[in-house]
Write a structure and sequence with these properties.
single chain; 191 residues; alpha+beta; Ctag/Cox11 (Pfam 04442); 2 domains; five-stranded mixed beta sheet; 3 helices; 10 strands; 23% helix; 37% strand
Length: 191
């Protein structure tokens, strides 16, 4: 009887441990799935633009939001830009900490329409890391991106003429994080 109880306990423990392991793996696996397929408007990350620039232009609009619990102002420096398919484009956003103390924020992002998300690639983005702004500090935050030429071969993607890149800044969970403000390249680079 004691052996049987030990076997049942070991089996239950293994099931619970397996379920806990799967729950930890679920978030990164889900994110990898979304980034590779564009599911839920998740754009991909890339090391560099493809080097092939097409003639077709597409309008990229920028939408910015801030959680009410984050004392920041956050806006794009341009509301929209026209880019050629495959072109590496650098745009800037401005964030300002309106509080009297340092605050760490983290941006979530989304691309719409969803069928265009898999073709929207970010090379550099402030959204890849948490951002720390000192009291009253105002900074420019760069985003370097391109729209993949593969979009032209996709019947659904080829009908897209406008893409919206949307950001929402939230307060970071750990306000003591060693976050740094995104490095700002010279405005003349990247397009």
């Amino acid at each position: 009887m004691e052996r049987r109880n030990a076997a049942v306990f070991a089996s239950c423990f293994a099931v619970v441990a397996g379920m806990a392991s799967m729950s930890y793996a679920a978030v990164p696996l889900y994110y990898m799935f979304c980034a590779s397929t564009g599911y839920g408007g998740t754009p991909a990350r890339a090391a560099a633009a493809p080097g092939v620039v097409g003639e077709r232009e597409i309008t990229v609009r920028f939408d910015t939001n801030v959680d009410p619990n984050l004392p920041w102002a956050f806006v794009p420096e341009q509301r929209a830009v026209k880019v050629r398919i495959g072109e590496d484009r650098l745009v800037f956003f401005r964030a300002e900490n309106r509080s009297d103390h340092a605050v760490v924020g983290h941006a979530s992002f989304n691309v719409q329409p969803e069928q265009a998300a898999r073709y929207f690639n970010k090379i550099q983005c402030f959204c890849f890391t948490e951002q720390r702004l000192e009291a009253g500090e105002s900074v420019e935050m760069p985003v370097s991106f391109f729209v993949s030429p593969a979009m032209l071969k996709d019947r659904a993607g080829n009908t897209v003429n406008e893409i919206t890149l949307s950001y929402t800044f939230y307060p970071a969970t750990n306000q003591k994080a060693g976050a740094k403000t995104a490095s700002v390249p010279a405005k003349g680079t990247g397009g």
